[in-house]
Amino acid sequence: MNFNCKENIKMAPYCSMKVGGFAKYLALPKTESELVDALRYFREKGEKYIVVGNCSNLIFTDDGYDGAIIATTDMKGLSFENGIITALCGDTLSSLARTALDNSLAGLEFCYGIPGTVGGAVFMNAGAYGGEISEHFIRGRFLNANNEIIVLNGDELEFGYRKSRLMREELILISAEFKAENGEKSEIRAKMDELMQKRKSKQPLEFPSCGSAFKRPEGYFAGALIEQCGLKGYSIGGARVSEKHAGFIINDGNATATDVIKLLEYVAETVFKNTGVMLEPEIRVII
Ligand SMILES: Cc1cc2nc3c(=O)[nH]c(=O)nc-3n(C[C@H](O)[C@H](O)[C@H](O)COP(=O)(O)OP(=O)(O)OC[C@H]3O[C@@H](n4cnc5c(N)ncnc54)[C@H](O)[C@@H]3O)c2cc1C
Asked: I need a labelling partner for 198 at 20 to 30 A (CA). Which of 145, 150, 190, 252 fits?
């Protein structure tokens, strides 16, 4: 194999929730061709595999992952030409926002502070403060299940709220093109600073987490429902409903993946019993 690959690696340090057991393989491709090689290699080997970014929206169980985790975090390559920003799947959303700022492009400020990669953001249709990645996505290069590279436009990706076609069909994002409006640099910078300040004041960034634990149910806010049910500060083992923002489940330092999963289930059950609203986890549990 011509890509960096480690064996028997504990995943907790790689995941923003800081939980999870050992992976059989952790592959870290640096380029498009290494990513394609890694996927082909593990597919031909018949190994179970998953492509991840910064693991800021997923957890692995305490049993770990009996297969290959292909992490794109070493794949970087932002560029700007003719009004279009091109990113590799492993570029972070914050660096995408900074590239937009450097080129006086407005609209991507919401990406600043979301701790994921472009690949994870397209998969999840990440968004914040009224913006969504789908609004800026022009087209992407993907590897499909037949090991073919295909190009898909935004309108072919079935984007919805924290939803995309990548959730139902095996499509690995390699690179993507984004558009944004011309803007005033000082205003773009001010908006990025303002949104970062909001995050710092409202979110428990001092603890490991995966951001919002649940999707926003239509007509409600998950955090408000959880708080209304008296669950703020409720904990199972080392996993706790944040006192600062009830929509976040945090790791107090000693959580296991099992604690997080049990707490996700307990919170959803309690909210359903008390309010009749069924919360759907935004955190993905990978088995
Ligand atoms: C403190 C904090 C704040 C957050 N705030 C926000 C927020 O404001 N808005 C928001 O939407 N999210 C937020 N998140 C969640 C998370 O950062 C986003 O969902 C982000 O887009 C996930 O990117 P990632 O690279 O970490 O993906 P991962 O967690 O590594 O993966 C998520 C999913 O994407 C898939 N995937 C990853 N890369 C690829 C690829 N190249 N091709 C195909 N599939 C791929 C994975 O298989 C997985 O199913 C927050 C998280 C934290 C910890």
From this structure: 252
157 and 121 fall within a common domain = yes
Domain final residue pick, 187, 216, 246: 187
Q: How confident is the model at residue 1 (pLDDT cuts 50, 70, 90)?
A: confident
- 162 belongs to a structural domain: yes
Query: Has residue 232 been placed in a domain?
Result: yes
Tell me, using a 6 A CB cutoff, whether residue 86 lines ligand 1.
no
Atom 36 (ligand 1) nearest CA? 120
Q: State pTM to two decimals.
A: 0.97
CATH of the domain at 168: 3.30.465.10
Of all protein residues, the one whose alpha carbon is nearest to atom 50 of ligand 1 is 211
Catalytic choice (34, 212, 240, 242) = 212
Q: Is residue 178 part of a domain?
A: yes
**What is the C-alpha separation between 147 and 40, in angstroms, rounded?**
7
Cα dist from 72 to 14, 69, 77, 202, 256, whole Å = 12, 10, 12, 29, 25
Range of the domain at 182: 79-187
What are the pLDDT digits (tens) for 186-196? 999 999 999 99
